[in-house]
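WARN retry 2 of 3 for item q-0093 after timeout on previous attempt; input resubmitted unchanged.
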Amino acid sequence: MDIILPYTAQPRQQVLHRAKAGNILYGGAAGGGKSIGVRWDLIDFCLNCPNLFALLLRRQYQQLRNNHIVQMQQQLPKELATWNESNSEFRFYNGARMICRHLEHEKDVEDIQGWEVHICGVDEAAQFTPYQLNYIQSRMRLGDYRNFLEKEAAKNPKILPFLKRLPRLVMGSNPGGESHNYLKDNYVTAAPPEEEFTDDDGRSYIFIPATMRDNKYIDKNYEAQFRDLPEFQRKQLVEGDWNTVAGAYFDCFSTLEHVIPPLHLPSHWTRFRSMDWGYRQPFAIYWYAVADETPVLAKDGSTYKFDEGTLILYREWYGVQPAEKRGWTMKGLRIDPEEVARGVLEREIGEQVAYGVADPSCWRSDGSPSVAQKMAEEGVHWQRASNERALGSTILYQRIAANKFFVSANCEHLIRTLPIVETDEKKPEEYLKCGYDHGVDSVRYGAASRPKVNITPIKEKGMKMPSLNDLMKPVYRDTRNWI
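OK item q-0093 returned
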């Protein structure tokens, strides 16, 4: 009997189903088909791997039941799987099982202690805590099941592609939530989208972005439902922006609008630099070009034209130690000022840099030459930057909001840290001091060093989303063409 399943994978969902990494984050905008994709990824493995042990998780029970259990009860033919209410599991015709659980409290992960999970789907992963996600990852293993499935694959070669992708942890999530930064650091910014990478332990990872445009079945007015949400939340749910957090000071910054490809900069544009000094903590040095209305060519072939006085941040040197496996620490490189100065000069070969501004702490002295003096002896000179924190924060914010401040895509640390710097609740005109504000401090000095430009507040631009295809009833067949 030919059974037609009620699911056809759309292009982005097919990327998920074909992914070979053992740890997958399928994340981004609401309505991108993430939950459906995660659920059917597990179903596909259950249908093709006898005796598989699958686990489907959601933080809240009602969300688990309404978004997944009820859907599978309606969509899975009884010839393929039946629901067992007492054990909260689907039992498949070939002995595979899919347990459906919610982990509302952090300690609830103890319920899966000792489990050997072959494939796990975590829906809305950012709602879980980092501890829970790490604990879930620790349950992923095959054990003796590998030997069993290898024997089955010898009899049925169609099983082999599934075996090669087990164990498998697949997570779907919008930005925001308790594990926003955890997922961003470990998946979103760890490598380019859809590029598989491994950690020092040999575990493989991949991030697959999701947008509303990925789901052709979504209601045409769906985006409008988010119009009245706070700006940060609208960016997270509509744009799938992982660089936006609740309480962010620079809520006007958007990677879609303010991050640009590296440019071929005109030689007549004024260039300068800024520095936030650090030895045990990271230092941050940035180079800027002051644009006029001359059209410029980007290295990807596109053309840009900026308003007079716009700052283009085109180079970054961020002195931070990498984390042991991936990501970054908050520790500095502990490089002496003289060595940093020599590094600055190497990066400026062939350029005319008009001036540099550095934080006033560089002129502190305990009787020995200051940081500024040591760097001057190597030929790198600085001016004292304005340290009026509230004023500098406001100037930088106004420049970004008025589209008079753009960041080259190669400045990864500023792109990583500027969006997550939070507002100081006690001094709302300033951003909160924290362990990752070195890059933001540096560009604050740079922005405050320029003569005032005509900054007129701009109205919020509407989303330029392409029109969606007319709704059409899906027709679904064999899921195994994903491999």
